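Re: the 252-residue chain
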Amino acid sequence: MFSWVITNTIAAWLIPPGCLLLLAGWGLLRASKHPRSGKALLILGLSALWVLSTPWASRTMLQALEADLTDPLRASPAQAIIVLGGGQYYAAPEYRADTVSEATLVRLRYAARLHRETGKPLLVSGGSPQGNPISEAQAMKLVLENEFKIPVAWTEADSNNTLENARASRTMLAPLGINRVYVVTHAWHMPRARWIFANAGFDVVPAPTKFATNFRLTPRDFMPKADALEDSSHFFHEIIGLAWYRLKSILN
């Protein structure tokens, strides 16, 4: 849990809005002694914050991550489906327990459909990075079996990040001769997930969901929105994460 907190705290300042607030704050501090450069940094930070808060910018960036993803059913069939956890809804009063987050529910919905279309067994993967008693995988299993009426073959409840998802899933499935798998996650997360699972030894068939689609471009797409800034944060988190994992693989 401690390492998860430290990692995510550092990440919060490397991606928007944290890094942009640091940039603007630095400019504000410099402005008294170096007015020109200080104001330039302040304007740059606030301008970037505006741009990255627009649906147009965030959607464009996420679509760049999703560019080469296709329908998994067009590929040769895999042997199993792995669904990655996307967070939890803690102490949900209406369910009287921890349950899955909205992001995880999106993945489960698509995994349920993929199971019905292929008949392949399901593995749910996700631990308890914040130390809560119910792991993501356990919550995912409950939703799939009780609400979607989809059986779960394997529950991997010890991992706290995508790298651990891949390694723990490999440990469970390799002895069963399962190598080729559908990996279900958000489309913006898929490039990093696919790379990590491939390096863990899997033959990956990407099964992405929740693409950054668009109906039509309107003036509202250039106005700041909180959820657009979150999408921009996802983009930078994925780029930095993928670069970090690739650097580690080179150094190792």
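The longest helix spans residues 226-251.
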